[in-house]
Write a structure and sequence with these properties.
heterodimer, A: 233 residues, alpha/beta, 6-stranded mixed β-sheet, 4-stranded antiparallel β-sheet, B: 445 residues, mainly alpha
Chain lengths: 233, 445
């Protein structure tokens, strides 16, 4: 086990966003965080990364709590819907990721090729389309060195071909031992890419495991993740 | 824990990023473009007036302080810095500090083991460098003035530049604090301008109410700059300005952190502000000051200073003048401020029942200034430096020192038109900054 999330809770005023969320993350796996809109997926990632303070609960590493300020040694989180450094060209952003965020320079060319960024290197990030920006941000995440990479909606804004290509690239990075924890609201994308799933609904974990394990939990006889999802939510 | 070498490399990357963000900021280029014409207007106007006072067009030359380049030329020429610091610099600072949060960059960058203090330090250093570039137009007036035959007294010029750097530092710290507190640029800009207007109101209240208001107003940016414009460096003002800059940046660092609850940040801010207030109060007790002006406009003649320094007993002065009475303003600005520099322990008490004193004039005792020293008391109505010195010497039993001719500032008349200034400030600087903007933006990509 790489790390464990134990009884994590977060409220926004009176509204509970996460209630006693617990699950485990295995090393080298691609774990999918699935759930309907408003389930608390992004909030969970922000709490895990220490970007948002959580009200209760812990992230346990080898059985010991890991404080938010120390989580940079374990995980890196790529949020969805951000447009950082809009005036800076993609090439510089990748260099900055290596220089400031401690990224791996040996991966630079490979990641550029995998995410088809070579023609965008001189383009400022703020001038890119949604899909192009998403690819640039995925590159930022893939260059970092933390054992676990959390990506919120990695396929948002990408077309089918790009989604498949990027899915293959993510698989390659996972095969090298990096743990990927992906929040995906498109169940088909999640089913295609992920090894295991955490199903979140209304801020609570409704199930954790492979499709077969979730199907068993839901009491349905199917290997279709969409049907399992509907049964559990 | 990252090694010092790695931390330094990261800090250099951060500086690189902040500088690129500054270069990409339109607000900064607008500030730079405005500085040339703003300086030109004030410098050309000041030089023409100076030339007239110096006897241009057949007029008779003035004397003394009127022909001090510091008061006559440099204070107005550098007033462009004051305007830019209030109305333009905050937008540059807010853009640089709040931009990361609005774009989402902060959520990526804060996942690194790099303290928010260092992050805000990098931003402040880059903003200060940006401000130094903005000061090039007023600084370029110095060689122009010298080339026209003008006289320069470096210590007073350096004091003036220091004052404007501190003022910019205060603006940057205030804008950074507001940008980290507010969610949006516009809110941060309103809050920053609100605080600036608040300091103006404080100065106004100080002028009307006197007392504590007057003491507090002495530490507002406008009054602080005015002291540096007169070549006066006061340790209490230096300390208070430095403290406020550090406090503003610390507040910004506290609120830039992600993953920390608002109540906790609020508690930490309250502790910080309390500590700052206590240290500010301690700063007001610092008395050393330095008069760097060539005219020694903030000091009594040296012989008088030596004579006054010989007084060991505590001196009390009770002034029966209302805060807005011009005599009190003259007494404070031209006599008591100089006296406090020689006798830091002097205690001055103002007595009045109204702010303007208009209806107090007829009351017995109004206008009197009572001096008490070693059990003796004396009264005078004079509000000039000479009147004040005469009263103190008489009370202390000291023979007034003879006036030394060598001590009198004769001034530096320069009856010349500001040739080349219009071209420099209205064309060369805007063109240079425009070209800089185009080249820098191309180089960014």
């Amino acid at each position: 086990m790489l790390f464990e999330v134990h009884q994590l809770s977060k409220r926004f005023g009176r509204l509970p966003a996460l209630s006693g969320v617990s699950f485990r993350v295995q090393p080298g796996e691609i774990l999918g965080l699935i759930g309907p809109n408003g389930a608390g997926k992004s909030t969970l990632f922000e709490c895990l990364a220490g970007v948002l303070p959580c009200d209760e609960g812990q992230l346990l590493l080898e059985g010991f709590p890991l404080a938010p300020r120390d989580r940079h040694s374990l995980l890196f989180y790529v949020p969805d819907g951000i447009a950082p450094w809009p005036a800076q060209p993609v090439g510089w952003v990748l260099d900055y990721t290596i220089g400031f965020l401690g990224g791996n320079p040996a991966l630079r060319d490979e990641v550029i090729a995998q995410l088809d960024l070579s023609t965008l290197l001189r383009q400022p990030l703020g001038t890119l389309s949604k899909g192009q920006r998403k690819r640039a941000l995925l590159a930022v995440g893939l260059l970092t060195r933390q054992p676990a990479l959390l990506i919120d909606e990695p396929f948002e804004g990408l077309d089918l071909r790009q989604s498949r290509d990027i899915g293959a690239a993510l698989r390659l990075h996972a095969a090298r031992g990096r743990t990927l924890f992906l929040s995906i609201h498109q169940i088909a994308d999640a089913a295609r890419l992920c090894d295991r799933f955490v199903l979140l609904n209304g801020g609570e974990v409704r199930g954790e495991g492979t499709v077969a394990e979730l199907a068993s939990l839901a009491g349905v006889d199917t290997t279709n993740l969409e049907e399992v999802f509907l049964a559990l939510t | 824990m990252p090694s010092p070498d790695r931390s330094l490399r990261r800090f250099l990357w951060l500086l690189n990023k902040e500088f690129r963000e500054l270069v990409a900021s339109k607000a900064w280029w607008v500030l730079l473009l405005a500085m040339g014409p703003l300086t030109g207007m004030s410098f050309i106007g000041a030089m023409r007036t100076y030339a007239e006072v110096s006897g241009l067009n057949g007029g008779s030359a003035g004397v003394g302080e009127a022909l001090s380049p510091l008061i006559g030329v440099w204070a107005p020429a550098f007033s462009s810095c004051e305007l830019a610091a209030v109305f333009l610099l905050p937008f540059v600072a807010i853009g640089l500090v709040a931009g990361d949060r609005q774009s989402g960059a902060l959520r990526l960058e804060m996942q690194q083991p790099f303290g928010p203090g260092l992050r805000i330090t990098a931003k402040a250093l880059v903003l200060l460098a940006g401000w130094l570039l903005a000061m090039l137009p007023p600084l370029s007036a110095i060689p122009l003035w010298v080339s026209l035959g003008g006289s320069v007294w470096p210590p007073e010029l350096l004091t003036l530049v220091l004052g404007h750097l501190l003022n910019a530092g205060l603006t940057i710290a205030l804008a950074a604090a507001m940008a980290s507190l507010a969610e949006h640029h516009a809110t941060a800009a309103i809050l920053t301008l609100g605080v600036t207007v608040g300091t103006w109101i404080l100065s106004f209240l100080g002028a009307i109410q006197g007392g504590l208001w007057e003491r507090a107003a002495a530490y507002t940016p406008a009054v602080m700059v005015s002291q540096f414009q007169h070549g006066l460096i006061r340790l209490d003002v230096l300390g208070a300005a430095s403290l406020l800059i550090l406090a503003g940046l610390a507040i910004a660092a506290l609120w830039l952190r992600t993953g920390v609850s608002v109540p906790r940040r609020g508690r930490e801010s309250a502790v910080l502000l309390t500590a700052t207030a206590a240290l500010l109060a301690a700063c007001t007790l610092l008395t050393p000051s330095w008069d760097t002006s060539e005219s020694r406009g903030n000091s009594f003649p040296r012989a008088d200073e030596q004579a006054l320094a010989a007084i060991r007993q505590p001196l009390f002065i009770e002034v029966h003048l209302a805060p807005e009475d011009p005599r009190r303003v003259e007494l404070e600005a031209r006599a008591l401020s100089k006296l406090r520099r020689v006798l830091p322990g002097v205690q001055v008490r103002y007595v009045s029942s109204s702010s303007i004193g208009l209806f107090e004039q007829a009351q017995p005792g109004y206008g009197e200034i009572w001096y008490s020293l070693a059990g003796r008391r004396a009264m005078s109505r004079a509000t000039t430096p000479d009147g004040l010195l005469e009263a103190i010497y008489s009370l202390a039993g000291i023979t007034p020192p003879l006036e030394s001719g060598a001590d009198i500032f004769r001034g530096h008349p320069l009856a010349k038109e500001p040739k080349g200034a219009a071209a420099l400030f209205y064309f060369v600087w805007p063109a240079a900054f425009l070209a800089g903007a185009i080249i820098a933006r191309r180089r960014l990509s």
